[in-house]
Design goal:
Glutaredoxin, Glutathione S-transferase Yfyf (Class Pi), Chain A, domain 2, four-stranded mixed β-sheet
Length: about 260
């Protein structure tokens, strides 16, 4: 009979966080950095550490079978907090939302709101991160962009014409709704990690499709969405982070700027 998993001591919010992610690209680690930065949390980041790549590869190596309390992660981002090791971006954000009070707290009277915040973050990641990525890799992540460039042109046209307005329109409706509460935030008039995720996704799309998104912004149809973007960008700790050398530039990650895709769209 298999032995039960070891009991783990819970880490408090003041225990340093350790983000394990690839160096050189913001990638799926960036929303986590933004949350940690805004909260003023103490954390390390393998992307800025000497030989940090080896920490990433050791976590996802075939010979890593985890420990008595933690199964091995499949891929980064990975968050280590005390003895806890977790992966999957939405899962990490759900955890940090509780630890850093960036979402309604489970157990409180309004605790079910944590699921609403998670829902909003997942929707932003679906339409403004995953689908944006698929404009330059519509067939396979194992192929280069050049090997699927014609399919990418078709996907980018469809994305900008239909999918991007659909998701911007959805978040505009959310911000108009009663559940949004006091502007500019998505839920209950309170800043949450969902606002941070939406900011990051919009920022990435601005890089990938500057002309297309600029046109949508100028239309005036998504005024509340872009006000939220500006409000997050001006938060003191976020502003300082964006101006620092810790902020990695977009390059060949999720958000890529191919002028031909922006022009075609």
């Amino acid at each position: 009979m298999a032995s039960p998993a070891a009991k783990r001591a819970k880490s408090d919010k003041d225990t340093p966080y350790h983000l394990i992610y690839w160096p050189g690209i913001p990638g799926r680690g960036e929303p986590i950095r933004l949350v940690l930065e805004d909260a003023g949390a103490s954390y390390t980041d393998t992307a800025t550490m000497e030989n940090g790549m080896f920490t990433v590869t050791a976590q996802i190596a075939d010979d890593n079978t985890g420990d008595p309390a933690n199964p091995p992660p499949l891929a980064p981002p990975i968050l280590k907090h005390g003895d806890l090791v977790i992966s999957q971006l939405p899962n990490i954000l759900l955890y940090l939302g509780q630890k850093l009070h960036l979402a309604p707290q489970f157990g409180d009277e309004a605790g079910d709101g944590a699921y609403i915040v998670n829902q909003l973050a997942l929707t932003a990641l679906d339409g403004l991160s995953d689908e944006t990525h698929d404009t330059h890799h519509p067939i396979s992540v194992g192929l280069t962009y050049e090997e699927q460039s014609q399919e990418s042109l078709r996907r980018a046209k469809e994305y900008v014409a239909k999918r991007l307005p659909k998701f911007l329109g959805y978040f505009e409706r959310v911000l108009k709704g009663e559940a949004s509460g006091e502007a500019p935030w998505l839920y209950n008039g309170t800043f949450s990690y969902a606002d941070m995720v939406l900011f990051h996704c919009l920022d990435g799309v601005k890089y990938a499709f500057p002309r297309a998104l600029g046109k949508l912004e100028k239309s005036g149809n998504y005024e509340r969405v872009f006000k939220l973007y500006d409000a997050v960008k001006q938060r003191p700790r976020i502003k300082a982070y964006l101006e620092s050398n810790r902020r990695q530039k977009y390059s060949m990650g999720i958000y890529r700027h191919y002028p031909e895709l922006d022009d075609a769209a």
